[in-house]
Amino acid sequence: MAQGDDNDGRKKGVMPGSAFGRTARLAALPVGFAGRATLGVGKRMVGRPAQAVLTDVQRRTADQIFSVLGELKGGAMKFGQAMSVFEAALPDELAGPYREALTKLQDAAPAMPASTVHGVLQNELGDFWRDRFSSFDDTPVAAASIGQVHRAVWADGRDVAVKIQYPGAARALRADLRQIARLSRLFSVLAPGLDVKPLIAELQARVEEELDYSLEAASQTVFATAYAGDPVYAVPGVVAHTERVLVTEWLESTGSLAQVIASGTQQERDTHGEQFVRFLIGSPRRCGLLHADPHPGNFRTLADGRLGVVDFGAVARLEGGFPPAIGTLLRKAVSGDAEAVSQGLRDEGFIRAGVKIDPETLAAYVGPFFEPATVDEFSFSRAWLREQMTRVTAPGAEGMGTAMKVNLPPEYLLIHRVWTGAIGVLSQLEATAPFKQILEEELPGFADDVEQ
After folding, report:
1. Which three-class secondary structure state does DSSP give residue 234?
2. What digits encode the pLDDT tens for the residues 240-259?
């Protein structure tokens, strides 16, 4: 069964921190910004250049934002993850500690006490919930951002995975995001090209969906039906569900992509890397849904060579597949048409009205990210990814100067999450994959007139 992607440090089975304490830490952010902004005005009055002062304010604001988000877990952590669009564009001395805080959270969560687990099951499945199981293991096998997973045997003898939501998870997530919505002015200081308000609204909607396991059950059923009997992929079926408990078939696996990253052979890296990216890019065409949490732990290696997929709490609904504009833009980028790429990004909302970016500078900024689509086979690596991150975080027009002007339209939030996440996983795998061929076969708009 898949391990969760980000444990949250909770005590006695509830989300961490009192509502007052969590809100107070978030509410302190605007106060700190006001002080920095006032200090900035004073510096300009004594002769420091305006751009230098703005950069100083940005750095100090980022430092405080990432520090608080990293401490808060819950909705604050989810927002911080979604904000990778500019987190990756900041100097490592600012974003580095934040990323480290998120990493630590993955190992910081104690399990819910058995009594708490039993209480949730009683509330959701009724007083006689034990009658629905032949056996139930009180020790969790995995923990995720809003719930933990237990192994059990259903009354009919089937091995099942039981995902149980933490008490208080919904309240904490909603409170965090409401408070973060009030801080949009701060993020405009960090990334002037980013329109944060609609992005927060979209994130709030997505979190509401993740909190309702009935919706996850519906999504998983669509995937399980579409991939039933598939020779390459395995998706466990849904057995039972309520809003806070999800029971699915147990997926017996030999490990996950995380294990392949740690110790897999090159053949395993290449094979599972290709399976991984084909599933992500091909599923919208196949079933109208995009699995939007490409964490390595959610992709399981099976003894028969198939790739198992779990955790469907975050999905994007893409009837008919990816928007054709994505493939068309990618094709134009590969062909080197800077003007068309610039105009296309404006048309899709990635560059807001009034923001000026030289097309050639923009092409130089985004070009290397499309490098895997320019050759028949591409070898991803950590070194290549580090090179791209170093490039986009460097001072100057082709680095941070451009990154800060780019917007993330809310309708592309989950697509962006999957695209960047998939590149990260492929680079960790150091897999060689026919990326161009996969795009030609699965991504609408890309194959038209692609230069061979």
Report:
1. strand
2. 999 999 999 999 999 999 99
CB neighbours of residue 45 within 10 Å: 8
> Over 80: is that where the pLDDT of 25 sits?
no
For the chain, the domains span 19-108+169-210, 114-165+212-248, 255-452
Angle of helix 169-181 versus helix 74-82 axis, rounded to 10: 50
For the CA atoms of 71, 382, 196, 412, the dihedral, rounded to the nearest 10 degrees, stands at -130
pLDDT at 287 > cutoff 60? yes
Instruction: Supply the mean pLDDT for the chain.
Output: 78
The answer, yes or no, to whether residue 72 has pLDDT greater than 80, is: no
Check residue 220 and give left, alpha or beta (phi > 0: left; psi -120 to 50: alpha).
alpha
How many other CB atoms are found less than 10 A from the CB of residue 452? 5
Contacts of 51 (CB under 8 A, 6+ apart): none
Q: Are the CB atoms for 215 and 205 separated by under 8 Å?
A: no
CA distance 216 to 145: 14
- Residue in 331, 288, 303, 356 with CA at minimum distance from that of residue 440: 331
> Which residue in 28, 314, 18 sits closest to 172, CA to CA?
18
Across-strand partners of 290? 316
| Cβ-Cβ contacts under 8 Å for 270 (sequence gap 6 or more) | 431, 432, 433
pTM (two decimals): 0.76
CB atoms within 10 A of CB 78: 24
Give per-residue pLDDT as tens, 83-136: 443 444 445 555 555 445 444 444 444 678 899 999 999 999 999 999 999 999
Quick: pLDDT tens for 399-431.
778 877 888 888 888 898 898 889 989 999 999
Strand partners, 309: 299
Backbone angles phi and psi of 150, in degrees to 5: -120, 150
CATH of 114-165+212-248, one of 3.30.70.2690, 3.30.70.330, 1.10.10.10, 3.30.200.20: 3.30.200.20
Cα 361 from chain centre: 28
CB 401 within 8 A of CB 346: no
CA atoms of 311 and 29, how far apart (whole Å): 33
DSSP codes joined into one string, 119-167: HHHHHHH-TTGGGGEEEE-SS-SEE-SSEEEEEEEETTS-EEEEEEEPT
307-309/233-234 β-pairing: parallel
Separation CA 160–CA 149 (nearest Å): 10
How confident is the model over 299-314, as a mean pLDDT?
96
Cα-based distances in Å from 116 to 12, 172, 179, 212, 289: 8, 17, 28, 19, 34
